[in-house]
Write a structure and sequence with these properties.
The structure holds two protein chains of two kinds.
Chain A (H helix, E strand, L loop, with lengths): L17 H28 L4 H4 L2 H14 L6 H33 L4 H4 L13 H22 L2 H12 L3 H25 L3 H9 L4 H32 L10 H10 L3 H29 L1
Helix pairs in contact in A: 4-8, 4-10, 4-11, 4-12, 6-8, 7-8, 8-10, 9-10, 10-12, 11-12
Chain B lengths: L16 H19 L10 H14 L6 H35 L2 H4 L2 H4 L7 H23 L2 H12 L3 H25 L3 H9 L4 H35 L7 H10 L3 H28 L1
Chain lengths: ~290, ~280
């Protein structure tokens, strides 16, 4: 928000000294070497042989598998199960995202520096002392909480919640809510730290207190971006919700897991088509809402 | 930035949208609540509380014994290797498809305006190519990498190879889409200048197009690599190698102190990769 797009113009051709040129050449070569070494190391370590990667054998295996997928199984019971799984996946992503918003909003105001201890709002406060330290404490607490929530992947959260509350869609909602809460908290925090200070300053000049500044000066500025980020995460979550079932957290993933484990490839294709349709619908819905709301 | 905030204040217009939206939202909320079986009270019942207590007490202290850590070294390195090779394959898949899926490169734009002006057949053919590439990319990225991994485990067997292929295909779809967006966003003026100098298409591409796209191109690929590290760490849950396999084993055995250790390793690895990638991006 604060960065203005810089237009590069090439009216003046920048002159590069010979030494600078040589240095950048060496730097580029070193970088290239490092990248090359990286690839070779991974190539050896992942126990893959190029011959295997591009061999007739593995290619044939993949072709055989793809052939087995067709045609998709569209018998009524399978379709019914696919629709049920799709709706459940939608429900998981919807509730999970809502829970994430609740978590993010309840933590983020403590996790943005300019709202909690520094900047315009606290200019008049003493720079040192107990009150400042007391305000920094919730800041670091909130930041580390968001970090922990964000670092643990959704799938691992799902495993944990399956252990805690049992199989079903509910652990999926919790997993999405907790992980996405951390992500949204970070994104919301960045938006909050990036607000335009002019409206805040003018509100302050009219004698508004901090709560009033928050509601009239800050929230109206950040709300469109909050909504936009939330919709974006919802798009991500619908994809995750579709696979959370692999670890027992309901939705389409559970059905896919069963279909793959029992070698029901035709059903698998039906379910994959269901994911495709669901993901596409949600993408359009989210794009529509974004246009409409913002 | 120096504008007043007036742009955010919209004139109110009469529309049914808020009401319809509120109604649909409430409906979705009520239905989803029921369908997802949401029951916050679980944590307050004795069973849920016992499970929570078992988990939390089991987690601390993390298992930092030398035996376990040295056991984790191999899967950790394997996760890194899966992510690197997976990203490489993603680039190999995404780059050509991204090029074909770039409208200004395949069908429209100044490169083609002379060629395809009066040639409906060739134009149609090119358009078919463009749509095929777009369709493939969309297919690749719509199927989650977990499903890809599971399918590849079935097709090529357990192990890191399935993970590499899964990341390659799923991320190839995402990279291809973004590459085509980057290619479409280049400034056309240098291209036109090159064209007026008599450069051929290949020359225009390499001297006008590619240099403009390269920084964004590398930076997005690096970003995807960061994502690939996270993804390959958990793909093992379906048997595709790396740390995920160990997470699954420890979880099954209720060894929560090992889980905490693995999560710490994961955190360090992701932080290191983020740092490295930011460093490289800074050099661009």
């Amino acid at each position: 928000m604060s960065k203005s797009p810089v237009k590069h113009t090439f009216d003046v051709i920048p002159s590069v000294s010979a030494a600078g040129q040589a240095r950048s050449l060496v730097k580029n070569l070193l970088l290239l070497l490092a990248v090359g070494a990286f690839f070779i190391w991974s190539y050896i370590g992942a126990e893959i042989h190029l011959t295997q990667l591009f061999s007739r054998d593995s290619f044939d295996q993949i072709v055989i598998y793809v052939k087995k997928l067709f045609p998709p199984d569209v018998s009524p019971p399978v379709l019914r199960e696919a629709v049920k799984g799709t709706v459940e996946t939608f429900a998981i992503s919807f509730m999970g995202t809502l829970m994430a918003v609740v978590i993010a909003l309840s933590v983020v105001f403590f996790a943005s520096r300019n709202l909690i201890y520094s900047g315009l709002l606290y200019e008049m406060e003493p720079k040192r002392g107990w009150s400042r330290a007391a305000r920094m404490l919730p800041y670091f607490g909130a930041k580390s909480l968001l970090n922990i929530l964000r670092t643990v992947p959704e799938m691992v959260w799902a495993l944990i919640f399956v252990f805690l509350v049992g199989l079903g869609a509910f652990p999926g909602v919790l997993a999405l809510g907790v992980h996405t809460g951390g992500v949204l908290g970070k994104l919301f925090g960045e938006v909050l730290e990036d607000v335009d200070s002019q409206p805040i300053e003018s509100l302050q000049a009219t004698g508004a207190n901090r709560l009033q500044i928050l509601f009239y000066g800050i929230l109206p500025q950040v709300l469109p971006q909050f909504i936009s980020y939330t919709l974006y995460r919802w798009e991500v979550n619908i994809r995750v919700a579709a696979v959370l079932g692999f670890v027992g957290a309901g939705g389409l993933g559970q059905r896919i897991h069963i279909a793959i484990s029992l070698f029901l490839e035709n059903q698998l294709l039906t379910l994959i088509i269901a994911i495709y349709i669901l993901v596409t619908i949600v993408d359009y819905l989210s794009a529509y809402l974004r246009r409409k709301v913002i | 930035m120096n504008q007043p905030a007036t742009s955010l204040i919209r004139p109110s217009h009469r529309s049914l949208f808020p009401y319809i939206f509120a109604a649909l939202f409430t409906l979705a909320f009520v239905d989803s609540w029921r369908r997802a079986g949401i029951d916050p009270l679980v944590f307050f019942e004795s069973k849920g509380r016992a499970a929570l207590a078992k988990f939390l007490t089991g987690m601390f202290p993390p298992d930092l014994s030398w035996g376990f850590l040295s056991l984790m070294l191999r899967p950790t390195l394997e996760t890194m290797q899966i992510s690197i090779l997976g990203t490489l394959i993603a680039v190999i898949i995404g780059f050509p498809l991204g090029l074909l899926g770039t409208h200004t490169l395949t069908v429209g734009g100044i490169l083609n305006e002379a060629d395809l002006h009066n040639a409906p057949l060739r134009r149609g053919l090119r358009y078919g190519l463009y749509l095929t590439a777009r369709g493939l990319l969309s297919l690749f990225r719509s199927i989650p990498e977990f499903v890809w991994a599971f399918m590849f485990v079935r097709a090529v067997g357990l192990g890191p190879f399935a993970g590499v292929l899964a990341i390659g295909v799923a991320y190839g779809g995402m990279l291809g889409k973004v590459y085509s967006e980057i290619f479409e966003a280049v400034n056309e003026r240098p291209l036109e200048a090159l064209q007026s100098l008599g450069a051929n298409k290949l020359q225009i591409f390499f001297y006008g197009w590619f240099p403009q796209a390269l920084p964004n191109f590398i930076s997005y690929t690096l970003y995807r690599w960061e994502c690939a590290v996270r993804a390959s760490a958990i793909l093992g849950l379906v048997g595709a190698g790396g740390l995920g396999q160990q997470i699954e084993i420890s979880m099954r055995m209720f060894n929560f102190s090992e889980i905490l250790t693995i999560l710490m390793i994961l955190f360090l690895m992701v932080a290191a990769v983020d740092y490295l990638s930011a460093k490289v991006r800074g050099m661009l």
